[in-house]
What we know:
Helices cover 34% and strands 19% of the residues. The protein is of the alpha/beta class. It has two domains: 21-76, DNA polymerase, domain 1; 81-353, Aldolase class I (TIM Barrel), CATH 3.20.20. The longest helix is centred in the middle third of the chain and has 17 residues, at 148-164. It is globular. S-adenosyl-L-homocysteine binds at residues 130, 132, 134-135, 175, 179, 212-214, 235, 277, 279, 311, 313-314, 316, 357-358. S-adenosyl-L-homocysteine is lined by residues 130, 132, 134-135, 175, 179, 212-214, 235, 277, 279, 311, 313-314, 316, 357-358.
Amino acid sequence: xxxxxxxxxxxxxxxxxxxxxxxxxxxxxxxxxxxxxxxxxxxxxxxxxxxxxxxxxxxxxxxxxxxxxxxxxxxxxxxxxxxxxxxxxxxxxxxxxxxxxxxxxxxxxxxxxxxxxxxxxxxxxxxxxxxxxxxxxxxxxxxxxxxxxxxxxxxxxxxxxxxxxxxxxxxxxxxxxxxxxxxxxxxxxxxxxxxxxxxxxxxxxxxxxxxxxxxxxxxxxxxxxxxxxxxxxxxxxxxxxxxxxxxxxxxxxxxxxxxxxxxxxxxxxxxxxxxxxxxxxxxxxxxxxxxxxxxxxxxxxxxxxxxxxxxxxxxxxxxxxxxxxxxxxxxxxxxxxxxxxxxxxxxxxxxxxxxxxxxxxxxxx
Length: 365
Ligand code: SAH
């Protein structure tokens, strides 16, 4: 009789993370129990530990029979991410973690604590293939997609950290390394695990989960059709194609009008306001006329279902570009608002530890 290797025991190829409990949906978890000779109900029990208590070590799951713990650990809890270092700033309110995956790949996540909420900025890929010239991650190219579990486990660790401090992780932004919509299926599965209530997920409110994209138009539409209500953020950075072709090279494939049409489709389908990211760069995209054009285009495409988030550029090492002077930034905000589009400036955390937007590029150990 031909025997097929159970999926959970497949040896990982280099670069392909081993299957982990957090990769599996409810059916997959039950099937995996069968494969290791445990009754299906154990799947929910383990899920309650992982998603409800943020416990990832089966040896600590003391309501499992002792002889099952080791088996579960070996089959379903391979070590995925090991923290290489934690660096804090902003009086300990911002913490960047450098992670090493089992194949040596490096990636980062950033935890930001505010009064009454805590936001984790997570990576969806190691590196990024989008090559935006102002972004540190974009300079190094794409190493590989992260697996669903590698994405989910960044969240679990931060949730455990917050719980240990008597608090809670409330918000997730896919604004770390990588382009989430270029790793669509794994990111979508991760979003489900992050938002579904325990035992299927961490139960973080959909509205508090933001997926940020360079403007991968077809996948924005696909995401709109999934029946989720996560917040969509589109990194526009300029309203005209000529400059956007340079700042966000994927614009050569999906131009501004296509991206805004897809954003409108997202807003229509989900009823959610779309967030537009705009890194303000001195003398590059901070002109008065661009602010006017941005406001006009957004108002036309999205009406009142849009909000602009200005991010003062965080200059990356060796970059000739800089943030706009405060006066020009204020004028930009004023002009966008004058077109009927709400516009605010993002508070930039983590500057001094290279944990601010676009600075995430693992430099090594
Ligand atoms: N690939 C996704 C997530 C990237 S990071 C995306 O492009 O949306 C999240 C945001 O930080 C994006 O809007 C990105 O353009 C922005 N960003 C990148 N580098 C930056 C920098 N040096 N200064 C300010 N914002 C930057």
